[in-house]
Structures are given as structure tokens and as C-alpha cells.
Write a structure and sequence with these properties.
442 residues; mainly alpha; Growth Hormone, Chain: A; two-stranded antiparallel ribbon; 17 helices; 76% helix
């Protein structure tokens, strides 16, 4: 029995209330750390690219004398693509079969063009070319991100997915820190174009490592095409907007609430990711290079706690772990508009990275639990529908608040309010915890 079929058997067995495996000695399946770390190279590239994008694109657009609300609209373009294109390609990848598998080809052929687009964003001098490059970059990133992220649930048993996602997020955080620290040094010495060029190089190197080190299971490579149903991608995408899942009523209620929680906390987190460097430079009068270095401590917090966040969830549950993270974030964020300072910004960024890791490390495994092993791409698409919808709304919404108040410090109060709203949904969610996944031994 393959890894993927073993996961599916355990899932089906629990749903039906009977064993999906033949009689015999059974044991809990372990985690393939080598494969998980290899998949982490994809997240390394994604996180590195987005770290540079979120840190420097707002600064570049401001240098072009664009109003904050327009900056928010442009920064929301990638989120619109993530809301539309990204889920479609996540769903589509479930039904793709090539000689390399069903997920890897999206990274192999699309990511290199993304690297070129990011480089052009850095060297362009006019508004039109800059915005066009941002659009191309956003569209292409949306086409390969969900398939790469869906690799993890493909090859990981249910009970181990939080731990695996912690390792992958660790790799992503290392990518973000590497990108931000390196880009900060390049910004000081060579200018902003060099920082974007570094992001492009990181994408290229990390994707080469991913494709070289990861081999998809045989059933997902060409040769099993006869077992794959023909699908109409647009029809599948419409089904993602209005989910048609074979769930009981209480499971469906949990699904909707999980989507709502992810949507709400994303609105809060996205405001920090989009406007943090502007908060540091505008409100605290910190140099752009120093602001980026401070942002690196946010990613460093994720490095410190990424794996622990998954381990904690294995002991106390995903919902409880995420609730703790959101609760601590609310307490920490509420006073920040009044006590924020140059001296406090680095320890605060480190703390925020740690507590928010408790949330996003467990969110994808949480929602993926309601799908089967053959539909991890679809469930990943649902996850990105929720995150992308929040990310589309947040830059424009807070941009309007900043235009009204004239200050960026309110991002912390703004985030805390949405975290509290997400917390209020938690008591009503009854499903999404890890299942005991078993395989036949002997």
C-alpha cells in the first residue's frame, strides 16, 4: 500500500466507522523528514520572493509618488490573482498527470518566469512598467503556489501534517529571513534593484533544489492517466466558490467556520505584511534598510517556533493551538499604537512572529482534514480562497484608514480587532483535528 493510499484508507475508515484496512497488525505511520524538507524548498522560494515583494514594492510605489490607497490597490493585485487563479490551479493540479507528476510541473515551468518578472519590477523606472511587472509576477505566482503547497498533504499522514507543515513553514521562514537580511545589505550598498534581483536568484535556486530532490509518487505521474477523470477547470472553480462537499451538516458548519476564521485572521496579518515598512519609515522615522532588518525578526520568530507549533498541535489540538496564538497576539497588539518605538520594534516583531506561527502552521492541516487524500489540491484551493479573499480586502481597507488618520500605527489595533473576531468563531468548530492514520504492518 502506498503512502497516499494508506492515508486515504485511514480517512475513509474513520468516516464510515469501520476499518478500511484488512485485519492484521497495524501501526502509526511516521513522518518522512527528508521528503518534507525537500518540499520545504518550494516554500523557501515562495516566502523569500513574497518577503522582498511585501517589503520593497510599497516603498518603490511610494517613491513613484502614488497615494497610499493606490499603493493598497496595487498591492492587492496579487491577492485578486490568488483569489481567482490560485484556487483554479490548485484544483486543476489534482487531475494533471505528467512524467514529473501532478504538482511539480507548475513550479518547473512557471517559477523561472516569475523570477524574471520580479527582476523587472526592481529595475523599472516608470509607473506603467512597474505596475505591469507586478501584475505579471502576481499572475504567475498564483499559478504555481497552490500546487507546490499541496505536495505536503499528498505525502504526509493526517496525524503528522501539523508537524510537517511546521517544518515547511520553518523552511519558508528561513527563506524570508535570508531574503530580507540579504536584501537589506544589498539596499544599503547597491540600491533597491539589487534587492529585487536577489529575490529572483533565490527563486531560481530554490526551485532547482525542489525539482531535483522531490519525486512524486508513481500514481501521480504519467501512466495512471486512465484513472483520472476528465474535468472542466472552470466548473471545478465554480464548485470551489460554492463548495460541494460530501459532508454531514455539522462537518459542513465546521468547514464554513474554519474558512471564516482563516479569512478574518488573514485580514489582520495582511495589514502588517503590507504596511509594516511604511509604519517603520513614516511613523517611527526608521531608514528603509533598518525597517527591513526589523521585519526579518518577524520571520526569525517563525523560524524559532515553526516546528514547535506543529508539535504543540499534536498534543493539545489544532483549534486550541491556534486559539492560544490568536489570544496572545490580541493582548500584544492592542497597546502597540501607543507604546510602539524604535527600541521596541525588534522584540515586538520577534514576539509576533512566534505567536502568529501557532496560527498559520496549523491552518492548512486543519482545513485539509475535511477532504480526502485524492483532493488535497482542492482543499488547498479552499484554504487559499479564504486567505486570498482576506488579503484582497485588507490593503485597501487599511489604506483608507491611513488616509483618514494620517498614521500607520493603527495597523496593530486593526489586526487585533480581526483576531478577536476569528477567536469568537472557535467555540463552534467541532471538526478538523488530526485522525489516527494507520498502515498494515506485516
Amino acid at each position: 500500500m502506498t503512502a497516499e493510499n494508506s492515508v486515504l484508507a485511514g480517512t475513509l475508515g474513520e468516516r464510515s466507522g469501520t476499518s478500511a484496512l484488512p485485519s492484521g497488525r497495524q501501526s502509526v505511520r511516521g513522518l518522512d523528514f527528508g521528503r518534507v524538507f525537500a518540499i520545504g524548498f518550494g516554500m523557501f522560494a515562495i516566502s523569500a520572493a513574497w518577503a522582498i515583494y511585501n517589503a520593497y514594492v510599497p516603498l518603490k510605489l511610494k517613491d513613484l509618488a502614488l497615494p497610499t490607497m493606490v499603493v493598497g490597490l496595487i498591492m492587492g493585485i496579487d491577492n485578486v490573482c490568488a483569489l481567482t487563479i490560485q484556487p483554479l490551479f490548485g484544483i486543476l493540479s489534482d487531475s494533471v498527470r505528467t512524467r514529473w507528476g501532478r504538482r511539480l510541473p507548475f513550479a518547473m515551468f512557471i517559477a523561472p518566469i516569475c523570477a524574471v518578472a520580479l527582476f523587472v519590477v526592481g529595475i523599472s523606472q516608470g509607473v506603467a512598467i512597474t505596475v505591469l511587472s507586478v501584475v505579471v509576477y502576481a499572475v504567475l505566482m498564483a499559478m504555481w503556489r497552490a500546487p507546490v503547497v499541496a505536495l505536503m498533504p499528498d505525502v504526509t499522514p493526517s496525524a503528522q501534517r501539523s508537524k510537517a507543515n511546521g517544518i515547511i513553514n520553518l523552511m519558508g521562514s528561513i527563506g524570508a529571513v535570508t531574503a530580507l537580511v540579504g536584501a537589506s545589505l544589498l539596499l544599503k550598498r547597491c540600491g533597491m534593484a539589487a534587492a529585487f534581483a536577489a529575490g529572483a536568484v533565490i527563486i531560481a535556486i530554490a526551485i532547482v533544489a525542489l525539482v531535483t530532490m522531490v519525486k512524486e509518487p508513481a500514481e501521480f505521474r504519467r501512466g495512471s492517466c486512465q484513472d483520472v477523470p476528465r474535468v472542466r477547470p472552470w466548473k471545478r472553480f465554480k464548485e470551489a466558490i460554492v463548495p460541494r462537499l460530501h459532508l454531514k451538516s455539522d462537518e459542513r458548519r465546521s468547514f464554513v467556520l474554519i474558512m471564516l476564521v482563516i479569512f478574518l485572521y488573514t485580514i489582520g496579518i495582511n495589514s502588517l505584511e503590507t504596511y509594516f515598512t511604511l509604519y517603520a519609515t513614516h511613523d517611527l522615522h526608521i531608514r528603509a534598510s533598518s525597517a527591513t532588518s526589523a521585519l526579518a525578526f518577524y520571520a526569525a520568530g517563525s523560524i524559532v517556533f515553526a516546528v514547535f507549533a506543529g508539535i504543540i498541535a499534536m498534543h493539545i489540538g489544532r483549534k486550541a493551538t491556534m486559539s492560544v496564538g490568536l489570544g496572545i497576539a490580541v493582548i500584544a497588539f492592542l497597546p502597540m499604537p501607543w507604546i510602539g518605538s524604535r527600541e521596541l520594534i525588534i522584540p515586538a516583531a520577534l514576539l509576533f512572529g512566534i505567536v502568529l506561527t501557532l496560527v498559520f502552521v496549523n491552518a492548512l492541516p486543519w482545513i485539509a482534514e475535511l477532504g480526502g487524500a485524492e483532493h488535497t489540491g482542492t482543499m488547498t484551493a479552499y484554504y487559499y480562497l479564504a486567505t486570498s479573499a482576506g488579503a484582497v480586502i485588507s490593503p485597501v481597507l487599511f489604506g483608507a484608514i491611513e488616509e483618514w488618520t494620517g498614521e500607520y500605527r493603527w495597523i496593530f489595533l486593526y489586526a487585533a480587532v480581526f483576531f478577536m473576531m476569528a477567536l469568537s468563531c472557535m467555540p463552534f468548530i467541532r471538526h478538523g483535528e488530526a485522525r489516527r492514520t494507520v498502515s498494515v504492518a506485516g
